[in-house]
Design a protein that fits this description.
Belongs to the Tdpoz family. It comes from Panicum hallii. The structure is a single chain. This protein is of the alpha+beta class. Helix content is about 35%, strand content about 25%. Strands 1, 3, 8, 9, 10 and 12 form a six-stranded antiparallel sheet that branches. Residues about 10-20 and about 90-95 have low confidence and may be disordered.
């Protein structure tokens, strides 16, 4: 079973090139494979397809071959890009698409794993709808299963660049952005910090301008019109209802747009706490990243409590993931007992009614 997430945009994101390069359109798509054990063994050259997505005015899909794309690749997992249909509303379009694709497994927070990335350099010509280019040796099956399959599921991101036309080449080199590293160093050093947060007895320094740029709540707190005179001069803020490690992780995200390294034993708890913090400080990207982590790693044991969390914070995808786990579990009645059920009934009676309806139960 697979599901998809996509994003498209214009322009080339960075790296090397030239001052006047090819005109491109870029976008990415995430293929989420669930119940992998049921897909393995479907047969050589048999594939599953992602939902279609659009980059450069053309529709594409990712193709995935669990048992290899040929007899020569039976020990490999293969992946490819397929052109679905021609670009619309372009009378001069000859139907040819020129593109390159890069494939990466995603880690527990939804970021590409550099060591697993393949492709991205070779340019392919798609001369007709329905044509595919397959990477025949994406990863050995045993390596994928030992490194990337967790709880019978995994995610692969496909970055697509569609090349529209060639322009004159002027040699130039654009280094990759190091803004994240610089801001992360600024947070670590505390240089120029103008506010200190007291969190459960621990003091953490930060910069009001950075916080305000990343969170509407911090912006209102420090520079809001009604409190501007007092808030702008405040240098000490006490934080209630949050652990220091969670606030520290949130600061790391604010400055670097990424999550810190989180051990497997802490992953679920940290993601839950950070989701609450993200909602509290109105940071949608952090909230989405935490929801992604929880969707990937939620299990039967925590499905009920996670369902309540999803309902309280408006996380639709996480809510559906919990419903799916509970609905497919053969022991859901055993799970819906004790403190979790009491918490569900007291915090959200309507959610309990919805859960009963989804499970086909009259009552619990």
């Amino acid at each position: 079973m697979s599901s998809s997430l996509a994003c498209a945009g214009g322009g080339d994101g960075g790296g090397g090139g030239s001052a006047s390069t090819t005109v491109t359109a870029t976008g990415w798509h995430v293929l989420k494979v669930e119940d992998y054990s049921q897909l393995k063994g479907i047969g050589v050259a048999r594939r599953i397809k992602s939902n279609p997505f659009v980059v450069g005015g053309r529709s594409w899909c990712v193709t995935f071959f669990p048992d290899g794309s040929s007899e020569e690749t039976v020990d490999w997992v293969c992946i490819g890009l397929r052109l679905e249909r021609r670009r619309r509303h372009h009378d001069d379009d000859d139907g040819i698409a020129v593109a390159r694709a890069k494939y990466s497994f995603l880690d527990q927070v939804g970021e590409p794993v550099p060591s697993s990335t393949v492709g991205g350099t070779s340019v392919r010509v798609f001369s007709r709808p329905g044509q595919s280019w397959v990477h025949p040796e994406f990863i050995r099956r045993e390596d994928m299963e030992s490194s990337h399959v967790r709880d019978d599921k995994f995610c692969i991101r496909c970055d697509v660049t569609v090349i529209e036309r060639n322009c004159c080449q002027v040699p130039a080199t654009v280094p990759p952005s190091d803004l994240r590293r610089h801001l992360g160093d600024l947070l670590a050093a505390g240089a120029g910090a103008d506010v200190a947060f007291e969190v459960a007895g621990e003091t953490l320094a930060a910069h009001k301008a950075v916080l305000a740029a990343r969170s509407p709540v911090f912006k209102a707190e420090f520079f809001g019109s009604l409190l501007k005179e007092n808030a702008a001069t405040a240098t000490h803020v006490r934080i209630h209802g949050m652990e220091p490690r969670v606030f520290r992780a949130m600061l790391h995200f604010i400055y670097t747009d990424s999550l810190p390294e989180i051990g497997p034993d802490e992953r679920m708890a940290m993601a839950q706490h950070l989701l609450v913090a993200a909602d509290r400080y109105d940071m949608e990207r952090l909230k989405s990243m935490c929801e992604f982590v929880l969707c990937m790693h939620v299990s039967e044991d925590v499905a009920v409590s996670t369902l309540v969390l999803a309902e309280q914070h408006g996380c639709h995808q996480l809510k559906e993931a919990c419903f799916k786990i509970l609905g497919s579990s053969g022991k859901y009645k055993e799970l819906l007992v004790g403190d979790d059920l009491e918490h569900l009934a007291s915090s959200s009676p309507s959610l309990l009614v919805e859960l009963c309806a989804r499970l086909g139960l009259d009552e619990l």
